[in-house]
Amino acid sequence: MSAPRSNGPKFEGLAPLVDEATLAAAARPAARAAANREPASVTLARLLKRARHDEDMKWLRRVALAALCAALLVGGAFGVLALVPRPIPNYAQDPMDQIMEFTLLSDDFNRLPVEKRLELIKDLVARLKTMSGDDSSALAMFAASIEREMRRQMEENVKRLAVDVVDMFARDYESVPPEDAARFMNDRIVEFTRMMEDISGERSGLPEEPEARIAALRRQAQRDRDFARENAPTQMDARRVGDFIGFLRRDAEQVAGPEQRSRVTRFMRDMTRHLRDQDVATGKPLPPGSRPSTPPPPSAPAAPPTDGPG
């Protein structure tokens, strides 16, 4: 009686190397090995425990501690550098792109006192008036490299400077009695226009005398009001007014806190009323002849009379 014939694959000529028992063992699924494999979390916990306690793992503990200290030192150094203010560039000699980047694209410029920022702007204007060919090329490359986020920072720096300049006068205005408000406005208008002339290095075309300067600005304010009336929309619905007020609020909130925003808004409102010959408290037109004049600058006191000889 012959032996039963196997259904497995035939490897004729390879019987000395591969037999049926070997093929069966190779074809058996690896379920037993998978069942004996431990989870990754258990393996990691076992390795960490070994690294903490085994004597032969001291080198690993030392390396890990050194790496942790290095990471803390590097992170601390970057943190300190981020808090340390950048040095102010030399506006007369440093490269133009560095000056523009500091002025328009950094918060360090905003942290300077407003008087210092105005001084730097004056130096920048003087540098721009005498630009060399290298300065022009650097300025063009700077303008071409500005991206969207940079434009937001540049806009914020310009707005913040404008708000802080107005706030210089608005802070003093809070303590002015109502009867002296108009005279204070005249003095501040003359001071502001002369300060802008000094920064730009050019005359504004306004008269030099305070009274004539105020009169010229009043005429300009009247022309602006007449133009606004002539070109105002025939119908102002609630949605249009709401959108406009919302735009002003969002624009101011970018650069000023509530206290500063309220102070500057009140000062600008009263300044506009004053130039339009309105009462700064009520906004109503002033009666003829009630406009306060700008006092002339104080003259030197007269010398006391001296007694003649004898």
Q: What is the terminal separation in angstroms? A: 171 Å
Mean pLDDT: 73
Question: Outline, from the CA principal axes?
Answer: elongated
Classify the helix fraction into a percent range: 55-70%
Keywords:
13 helices; 310 residues
Written overview of the protein:
This protein is mainly alpha-helical and 310 residues long. It folds into three domains: 40-83; 88-146, no CATH class; 148-231 and 240-286, no CATH class. Helices cover 64% and strands 0% of the residues. It contains 13 helices and no strands. The chain has helices at residues 20-27, 31-36, 40-53, 58-83, 96-105, 107-111, 114-129, 133-145, 148-173, 181-200, 210-230, 238-253, 258-275. Helix 5 runs parallel beside helix 8 (133-145) and helix 7 crosses helix 9. The longest helix is centred in the N-terminal third of the chain and has 26 residues, at 58-83. It is elongated. The termini are far apart.
Can you summarize this structure?
The protein has 310 residues and is mainly alpha-helical.
Fold topology:
Layout: H1 20-27, H2 31-36, H3 40-53, H4 58-83, H5 96-105, H6 107-111, H7 114-129, H8 133-145, H9 148-173, H10 181-200, H11 210-230, H12 238-253, H13 258-275
Helix pairs in contact: 5-8, 7-9, 9-13
